[in-house]
TrEMBL record:
Subcellular location: Cell membrane
InterPro entries to which the protein is assigned, alphabetical: MATE_fam, MATE_MdtK, MdtK-like
Pfam families per the UniProt record, alphabetical: MatE
Membrane topology according to the record: Multi-pass membrane protein
Hydrolase among keywords: no
PANTHER family reported for this sequence: FMN_FAD EXPORTER YEEO-RELATED, MULTIDRUG RESISTANCE PROTEIN NORM-RELATED
Molecular function, one GO term: xenobiotic transmembrane transporter activity
UniProt name for this protein: Multidrug-efflux transporter
GO cellular component terms, A-Z: plasma membrane
Domain of life: Bacteria
Species the sequence originates in: Marivirga atlantica
Keyword terms of this UniProt record: Antiport, Cell membrane, Ion transport, Membrane, Transmembrane, Transmembrane helix, Transport
């Protein structure tokens, strides 16, 4: 639910920007994959913090839980500052690189620059959420995200259209609203960690670079960062394919991508829960129970997300119309994208949950290899061939999604049943 609420930021932005027109939606849609690419670098490191903290929690070692949490906050803080600076100054060349046309270039650059200001806040809350997840406290972050999403409902139209003495910033106003709410959530989260009343206490004396610990964090986190970065880079390349068909198709793709994120986010939520539970049970030496958790998570993800996919298939057109009510072509193209993807959402859930098993076992390189194969060796080549070498045109891009979901799920499931992750988990437990 917390991850779905995170996605609500994007959905709220798309709703209000749709009132400005298809170009406004396209401007945000074209910048989102690049933003995700930058954010994914730090997200992999926060996952490493989750795994380490979960292992120590399973071993009932509170001192190491606090120490590892403090080190995670320290590392991610400096990483977020670096990425914020890079994001701000590279906004214009990045938007041109992905093919932003003259009608959306200025808006996409402004949106990206304003969003870059919020990287530090966003990463700090990600750290808080990940650490809480590592000890099994998932409700508190959800309540915080819920309150900031409700605030964003008010701030979005306020800064997009303006009111009274507050000027309207147009497309950039959506980013301004998000940065404000991200800042509030970050201060609340870090404040809770400092007070230490919720199972973790970060301490200033532990916030000196421990290069042995940081090395271990990067060893676990870099493959995860590369996995998420490869996913984001693949999204970016897909956008470059889409932009060759015009801004209306970009807008349709953007709406479909938002709906896809509604599925990816709960899939990632299942995966993160699986990572935490597998990590805690491995830390406690309960390997058979970790295996049962993997089996159960697979069933929940497959049947649950397949059911949601069927609902989205039925209501594809009303959903698209909700975001862009006045452009029939965008509505038709976006609805078709959703209908083509929707039946494969359960397969996407299987892949993500199995990635969660591998990550919880400390075998993060397996997730990386599966994602790279799925996105770069299946999805992108399929999208390119179908869209440029057949009469499907841009619809070929739509079909690349279910094809890659099917193949990736099969490969991940076979690898899971082979059981190598269990051997790897034993090695990692001895390294604690």
């Amino acid at each position: 639910m917390a991850n779905i609420l995170h996605t609500a930021y994007q959905l709220i932005d798309t709703f209000w920007l749709g009132r400005l027109g298809a170009n406004a939606v396209a401007a945000v849609s074209i910048s989102f994959p690049i933003l995700f690419l930058i954010l994914s670098i730090g997200a992999g490191l926060t996952l490493a913090g989750t795994v380490i903290v979960a292992n120590h929690k399973g071993a009932e070692n509170q001192v190491e839980v606090n120490y590892s949490s403090s080190q995670t906050v320290l590392v991610i803080f400096f990483v977020s500052i670096l990425l914020a600076v890079i994001g701000y100054f590279s906004a214009a060349p990045l938007m041109k690189l992905v093919g932003a046309g003259p009608e959306i270039l200025n808006d996409s650059v402004r949106y990206f620059k304003f969003s870059s200001f919020g990287f530090v806040f966003l990463f700090m809350f990600f750290v808080f959420q990940s650490l809480m997840r590592g000890i099994g406290n998932v409700m508190l972050p959800m309540y915080i995200v819920l309150s900031t999403v409700l605030l964003n409902l008010v701030l979005d139209p306020l800064f997009i259209f303006g009111w009274g003495n507050i000027p309207g910033y147009g497309v950039a106003g959506a980013a301004v609203a998000s940065v404000i709410t991200q800042g509030i959530s970050a201060f609340i989260g870090i404040g809770i960690l400092i007070r230490g009343k919720k199972g973790i206490q970060i301490k200033s004396k532990h916030m000196r670079f421990d290069f042995t610990w940081v090395k271990r964090m990067f060893k676990l986190g870099v493959p995860s960062s590369l996995e998420q970065s490869s996913r984001a880079a693949a999204m970016t390349v897909m956008v470059m394919l889409v932009t060759s068909f015009g801004s209306e198709v970009v807008a349709a793709y953007g709406i479909g991508a938002r709906v896809l994120s509604l599925i990816v986010v709960p899939a990632l939520g299942f995966a993160m829960a699986t990572t935490t539970l597998v990590g805690q049970n491995i830390g406690a030496g309960k390997l058979k129970r970790a295996n049962k958790i993997g089996d159960l998570s697979n069933k929940i993800a497959f049947f649950g997300l397949t059911g949601i996919g069927m609902l989205l298939f039925v209501f594809a057109e009303p959903i698209t119309r909700f975001f862009v009510p006045n452009d029939e072509q965008v509505i038709q193209d976006g609805a078709l994208f959703i209908k083509i993807m929707a039946p494969s959402f359960g397969l996407l859930g299987v892949q993500q949950v199995l990635n969660g098993v591998f990550n919880g076992a400390g075998f993060t390189s397996a997730s990386l290899l599966i994602s790279v194969f799925s996105l770069w060796m299946i999805r992108f080549p399929t999208a390119f061939v179908l869209s440029h070498k057949t009469t499907l045109a841009f619809e070929g891009i739509w079909w690349a999604f279910p094809i890659s979901n099917l193949i990736a799920a099969i490969i991940a499931f076979i690898y899971y049943k082979m059981g190598y992750w269990k051997i790897r988990s034993i090695k990692n437990r001895h390294a604690l």
